[in-house]
Amino acid sequence: MPPRRPVQRATINDVARVAGVSRGTVSRVLNGETYVSDAARTAVEAAVAEVGYVRNAAARNLVTRQSGAIGLIVHEPHSLFLEDPNIGSILLGINAVLSEADYQLVSLVVDSDRDGVRVASYLTGGYVDGVVIISARENDPIGLAVARSGLPAAFVGHPMDIEGVPYVGIDNRSAARAVTERLMATGRQRIGMIAAGLDRDSGQDRLAGFTDALGDRFDPRLVVEVPLFAHSSGIAGMRELLTHDDRVDGVFASSDAIAAGALDAMRDVGLSAPGDIGVVGFDDSAWARRTQPPLSTVHQPADLLGRRAAELVLAQLEGRSVEAEGSFLETTIVWRDSA
Amino acid sequence: MPPRRPVQRATINDVARVAGVSRGTVSRVLNGETYVSDAARTAVEAAVAEVGYVRNAAARNLVTRQSGAIGLIVHEPHSLFLEDPNIGSILLGINAVLSEADYQLVSLVVDSDRDGVRVASYLTGGYVDGVVIISARENDPIGLAVARSGLPAAFVGHPMDIEGVPYVGIDNRSAARAVTERLMATGRQRIGMIAAGLDRDSGQDRLAGFTDALGDRFDPRLVVEVPLFAHSSGIAGMRELLTHDDRVDGVFASSDAIAAGALDAMRDVGLSAPGDIGVVGFDDSAWARRTQPPLSTVHQPADLLGRRAAELVLAQLEGRSVEAEGSFLETTIVWRDSA
DNA sequence: GCTTATTCTGGGAGCGTTCCCAGACTCTCG
DNA sequence: CGAGAGTCTGGGAACGCTCCCAGAATAAGC
Predict the structure, then answer these.
(1) Is it the case that residue A247 has pLDDT exceeding 90?
(2) Strand C: which residues have Cβ below 7 Å from it?
(3) Which nucleotides of C are covered by protein (CB under 7 A)?
(4) Partner residue opposite B1 with nearest CB, options A114, A121, A166
(5) Where is the HTH lacI-type domain (chains A, B) (predicted)?
(6) How far apart are CA A317 and CA B5, in angstroms?
(7) Which chain B positions have a beta carbon within 8 Å of A165's beta carbon?
């Protein structure tokens, strides 16, 4: 079949001609301004329908200096992007708020460094009026570029090395502390952790909270670091942990997927939860309800995270000042059967 | 903190002034044209760095009539969007191809009808040069709007009611037939199906393939329709199926998530796979390797689906004609332990 | 009826680019 | 040395829209 080509589009002048009015009047009708006679309005509306007019976004953006779009940057390696249980909900939360305010969300997935360059110029080139950035690691060039650009922005999560951009996150440290304490309170004596994502604040804070809770009883040999927040990492991590100490009776995993992997690794060697080892996850993702036994875990308000971030951007767009640099949303512990 | 405001941006005229050349020369350098002296080129590059110039996208789009961006429309109810195991891979496949060709992918998630209107005008307003649409249902207004717009486009999946737009999909019917036949070949006598998504071609075709394979032995009472491609639907579907006939010994599920739910429902009533009932899923998603036992399923080349769709759009953008209206990619059956 | 508001309209200017034409300057070659 | 080709540059015009000013038409007030 022949290539599809956009048809020659009608301009505001065509509409004006057909409607028998001037360019200015058409523009006024299009933008819903007052001071337009009913006769003119109906004529323009009919003409718009007749010629199939759609406003040229580029021309409009050029003069108004805004695009009506907000960017969402998801900067994750592919594997993480596919695994992350929160991104979907965050995205939907953002979309809900922006949709309400009549902004269009455009998501940019950044993979390679090459993408990074293109995305940075996309953002600063005026395609978007603001931006939400998920999961900025340390030294994230895009985060830095956005911070420098002055573009209204908000982070989901708290980048450690960027200032002046508001953020909304959860208090990973407190949540990890609370859940670890609860594990201790159920009588667990030798509690280990399978930690992931130590290159970002969330990962580090979860580890810190775990350490906080254990205090003197903290034993570094019981912390295993794994590369991904993934099921496979959970399996590997649990196996390694058991070689370090086969009397482990509690495990805090950095994510539900890791916890699920840990449960599977345990099953392979004849151990079960919560009997032999109490296992706790993080995220309260779809995983948590589907493992055997269902996971005790920390519930993350992902949807709300997205909504808040979007609101932060909108506030700036409207010229309102943002009260605090950052805020943390409440997490709740969901105690199921795995611990 | 005060609202962030984009700083006043430098224009090409500022660059020209600083570099001591004309607007035209700056433009030539920016666009990598020949016929620019080395002296001018270096002067311009230095000036660009000095004033922090970034090209204004709107102005450029206005005159070139292109945006350098391709839209991806994901038109799914929220629940599906979060569950769908393929969307992520498709997106990454598209992104890989477009990134190579230096196009920026912008993803638009459509939820409400209100979003639909905004998205349609976004697409036809010149923000994107082309578009990939995932999962168009019947009477999808956005699919229709795109088809009518003449915008270079491609569907992932085969919309039943839209013509003239190329698509790439998988042969759901053959795949379903093949997998059902294999289930029969292993000696299953009473094979049921838990079917989802009958409002779209993929769902209908899977059911049709299932019916094809069974031929005379098809028993409509053994087909249970569920609303979502989800775990919870699998649980409900399996329970319902067992009330219809408690001697079922084989089940084909429309997705891995459904199959996983079916396995859980079976476990609850003391049945197991493959001993009591052989269970087969669809997608070969992350689920498949994590159920107990691991699922036999149909592997969907999601990444490739995305790549092909992106290539179809690029071909049109380059004015090449597209050989066939649609194509179907090969699926493979992955036989694990659940059947 | 005349003045002053109020409502409505047309069209010039300008947004920041690219495109393209005309002219200047530099080679090359007979 | 002069003609022609090749290289390089400046700047006018246009892209399609919004903004805004000035003026026309209508309504309101005395």
Answers:
(1) yes
(2) A 20-25, 27-28, 34-37, 39-40, 59, 62-63; B 9, 11-13, 23-24, 26-27, 30-31, 53, 55-56, 59-60, 62-64
(3) 7-12, 14-21
(4) A166
(5) 10-64
(6) 8
(7) 4
Arithmetic mean of pLDDT, B200-206: 89
* A82 pLDDT tier (thresholds 50, 70, 90): low
In whole angstroms, give the CA distance from residue A122 to residue B55: 10
Residue A114, number of CB atoms within 10 A of its CB: 12
**Within-domain flag for A292:** yes
Query: CA-to-CA distance for A20 and B242, rounded, in angstroms?
Result: 70
The amino acid present at B298, given as its one-letter code, is V
CB of residue A149 closer than 7 A to nucleic acid strand D?
Answer: no
Q: How confident is the model at residue A246 (pLDDT cuts 50, 70, 90)?
A: very high
For tokens 């580890």, what's the residue?
A207
How many CA atoms within 13 Å lie on the side-chain side of B235? 9
Query: pLDDT by residue (tens digit) across A251-278?
Result: 999 999 999 999 999 999 999 999 999 9
Distance from CA(B122) to C1'(C21), angstroms, rounded: 36
Mention every residue, 6+ apart, whose C-beta is less than 8 A from residue B11: B53, B56
Domain of B281?
172-299
**Type of residue numbered A176:** A
The reply to whether B107 falls in a domain is yes
Task: Please give the tally of structural domains in chain A.
Answer: 3
**Which of A62, A69, A150 is nearest residue B5 as measured by Cβ atoms?**
A150
Spell out the residues 6+ positions from residue B251 whose beta carbon is closer than 8 angstroms to its own: B191, B192, B193, B194, B238, B241, B259, B262, B277, B278, B279, B280
Q: Do B118 and A111 touch (CB under 8 A)?
A: no
- Map tokens 């667990």 to a residue: A188
Together in a domain, B73 and B221: no
Chain D footprint bases within 7 A of protein beta carbons: 7-12, 14-21
Report the C-alpha gap between B143 and B69 in whole angstroms.
Answer: 18
pLDDT digits (tens, 9 = 90+) for B127-179: 899 999 986 677 778 888 888 888 899 999 887 778 888 999 999 999 999 99
Q: Do B128 and B106 belong to one domain?
A: yes
The model's confidence at residue A200, banded by pLDDT at 50, 70 and 90, is confident
Nucleotide nearest to B63 (CA to C1'): D15
Same-domain check for residues B179 and B283: yes
